[in-house]
Amino acid sequence: MKKFLPLATVLLLWAATLTGSDPASFSVLYAPNALLALSDPDQPERRIEIYPNPVTEGRLTITASEDILSVQILNIAGKSVFNQDYEPNTTTVMIEPDNLEKGIYLVRISFANKINHTEKIMVK
Hints:
By secondary structure, this protein is mainly β. It has one helix at 7-19; strands at residues 27-28, 38-39, 48-51, 60-64, 68-74, 80-85, 92-95, 103-111, 116-123. It contains one helix and nine strands. β3 (48-51) and β4 (60-64) form a beta hairpin. It starts with 6 loop residues before the first helix and ends with a strand. Mean pLDDT is 78; it is low at 30-39.
């Protein structure tokens, strides 16, 4: 029987590998029904919340501690199904996912410092 590492551990090791940091120096931020970012001590703390997840009705809300420049939603095949640019000083975005079919999507958030953050969401 194969044993798998918890998702938080995999994300932690992946983020440490990308940044060349010690995995023990990272912390994982989480909240019920929301996706949050990993915290890297070498970077200013960036807090990102995407909720509710899964999206069942109503709005998808994205909040961040930094200015959001754009949000793009990609389907599982990588095709862009939503793309919106935002004005500076936008830290909360609400998206109506009514036109999205049920399934798994990637949400790519672009910030003013040219950093992109991607999270997975599910639409039910």
